[in-house]
Amino acid sequence: MKHLFKKEDAPQSRSTKTVKTLGPEEFLDKSKGGYWDTPGDFLTWGESLRPADANELDKTFGYMHANLKCIKESEIKTDKGNRPYKFYTFNRSAKSQPGVKVILEGPMTKVMDDYQDGVLEINFNLQELIVYAQSV
Predict the structure, then answer these.
(1) Could you tell me which of 62, 84, 59 has the C-alpha nearest to residue 74?
(2) pLDDT tier for residue 25 given thresholds of 50, 70 and 90
């Protein structure tokens, strides 16, 4: 009989995912495993967001920085500004599951997919990302 607590008998992980933990520099550089071509591209996109959408992005990066699990997403919709978006729900606690709207332009679809798949972790919030992007 197998003993689950003995290393040789314990179930083996089936996951072959490689998790990448990115800082602001890597996140904004495709050659370093990131998502944006240049920090300037990210800033240009961010400046094009409506203030309400930028606030939602700030919350999203905050939840991702806190490593909250994304438990649900809506279908892709189009907002008043004719931009594609999804609502994502994060699991903060049993009684708190905040939802955020994320504009899915540029690499943001890939960012959210990778985060949901557990292959992306970030060690920064949106303010830190903006400060870094503006400094280079």
Answers:
(1) 84
(2) very high
